[in-house]
Every structure is written in structure tokens, then in C-alpha cells.
Design a protein that fits this description.
six-stranded mixed beta sheet; four-stranded antiparallel beta sheet; binds adenosine-5'-diphosphate; binds ligand DP6; binds cobalt (II) ion
Amino acid sequence: MSRISEATAIAHPNIALAKYWGKKPIPGNYPAVPSLSVTLDGMMTRTVVRFDSSLEVDRVVLNGTEAAQSDRAHLRVVELLDRVRALAGDTRRAFVQSANDFPTASGLASSASGFAALALAAVRAIPGLDASLEQVSDLARQSSASAARSLFDGFVELEPERPARSIAPPEHIDLHILVCVVTEEKKSIGSTSGMQTTALLSPYFDSWLSTAPVIFSSMKEALAARDWEALGELSEKSALAMHACAMAGGIVYVRGISLDLFAAVRGLRASGILAYFTADAGPHVKVLVRDGDVARATDVLSKVPGVLRVLDTRPGKGATVIASSPEAT
Ligand code: ADP
Ligand code: DP6
Ligand code: CO
């Protein structure tokens, strides 16, 4: 007789307006700098975790394809499952099925929604394991620091060695994030490795470590005051500082199209539309606009040559469990 129990969770990526880049030189995958993000509706990961005592190994199906046991992606999932098993005192292996409805490992925060959904589904798939949302977020953070933020609603902060927490609900400020998708391809350097190289080789890494917390504090104030322009200016500043620091260490995520989009956003601003850009570890560009400017901005951005599509996203909810069936068969 095998013991089977399962849960399904969904989570959304988040975009950091004040970026995390670089880790504390201690175990646990703690970010070196504080960050402030928005959890995005309109993009999603759905993950099913089924613990099954008849399985001899963990099996992971990612976007419809089973990962080889030796894949880094498989290993990252197993590491999270191991932490959950240790917490629960449960030795069962799991069958994991997960899919992102947007490009994976491309700079659109798939690790954030992926590990948030996985941590929540894994914890809730174990009957009687009573973990708080904060504990689930901590499990997600150990796999990918940005994932800690995707458990929570709206505007979320993550400070080094502190639990992530929501600091404002989704409706706090009139905001859309237009995600300009420019490729379906995976990036050649993952975020973990990109930030390791930056820390080792960038002559600007120390100044990033001292600048990022200042940008973060000013951004928190701007958000609390609903100061839209300051929030936008600081978002651009954080993104540019992060990319400049990475580039000086040889890590280049932006492409020509990213720079064209930056210019288009500043063009929108010059024409009287409040629009600001940010970009994570990839070539895609995310644009902050107010509700009344979405149509105009989308029109301009989607005409920039090379833009595949523009997704209209808004601040949204954290991760949720959509089904669970603890049962013995
Ligand atoms: P991104 O910019 O998309 O966050 P990262 O380099 O940070 O890129 O992380 C990508 C990695 O995250 C993938 O190679 C894979 O290991 C993991 N990942 C992405 N989506 C999922 C998912 N749905 N379930 C489990 N792991 C995932
Ligand atoms: C540029 O959280 O993907 O998106 O912790 O190594 O998995 P790991 O890195 P990850 O890095 C995200 C970096 C960023 C900025 C941010 O989300 O804060
Ligand atoms: Co990531």
C-alpha cells in the first residue's frame, strides 16, 4: 500500500523595483541588500506536488518535459523538497509537475514564481505540517531569494536575514507593469551565477552594496507617500545601478532592444506620459505606468522593433493553494 498526498499551488512572478543582486557570504542564500518588489498578476506558475511512498526518486516535470536527475533544475527542486521533508520528518519522494505561462530562465522571474509555488505546494501536500506563510517564504528564499517575495500580496520587502513581508496591498497605488517580452530564449548566465561573478569581478560591487540600501529606503518612503514620480525615478536608478555593476564584472543581460525600450520609455515621458522602466537579469523590459496611460504606452512599446508582445500586469496576490488531497490508498 502506498501513501499518497498531494497539493497544487499557484504563484506569480514579482518584479523588484529596488533590486536584490548579490548574496551574504554566509550559508542560507540570504540577499546582500534589501529589495522591494511588486507581485504581478497576469503571469503565473502552477505546481503540483505529490508525495508517494512507492517512488524511489523524486521526479520533476517542468513545462511538460521531465528533467534528468542530473539537471541543475532537478537538483534545485530536490533541495527544496529535502528541506520540507526534514521539517516534516517525512521520507516520501515526490512527483512534481510545474509549468510557467511565460518564458522560463529568461529574466522574467521564473525562479521567483517557480519556487514560491513549489514551496507552498510541497508544504501543503504533507498532512499535518503546520507551516506559516513566513516559514514557506523562508523555504522558498533558500532556493531563490526573489521567491521569498512571491508568497505575499502587493508590495513586498525582503531585507537581509529577515522574513519577507507585504508592506502595501496591491491597490495601494495606481500602477500597471507592462512587461515587454523580447525573446522566448533562456539566458546564457543564470541569476545565481551572474551575481556570483559580479561579486567576484565587478569593481563597482562595493558601491552597489552601499547604494542599494539607500535607494531601498528612499523607495519605501516614496511608496508610503504614494509619490509616483519618485517611485519611478528610483526604480530606474536601481535597475541601471544593478546592470552597470554587473556589466563592469563582465555580466551583460541587456541587449540592443532593451536599450531601445529604455529610450522609448523616456520618449513617452518627454511626451507627458509618466512611464518608467526596470529590467531584471535578462533582456526584457518592464514599464511602470498609470491606468489611464496603458493603451498609449502599450501602443508605443509594442511598435519598438523586436518586441514580441506586451503583457499588461498589475500588482496582485501572493501564492495560493488551489487543491489538496491528503489521502492514503
Ligand atoms: P529567472 O530570471 O527566470 O528567475 P533564474 O536564473 O533566476 O531565471 O532561474 C531559473 C531557474 O529557476 C530555472 O533554470 C529552474 O531551475 C528554476 N525554475 C524556473 N521555473 C521553475 C518552476 N516552475 N519550477 C521549478 N523550478 C523552476
Ligand atoms: C535581478 O532570486 O533569481 O531579479 O537567489 O540566486 O535564485 P537566486 O537569484 P534570483 O535573483 C533575482 C535578481 C533580480 C532582482 C530581484 O529580483 O530582486
Ligand atoms: Co530568478
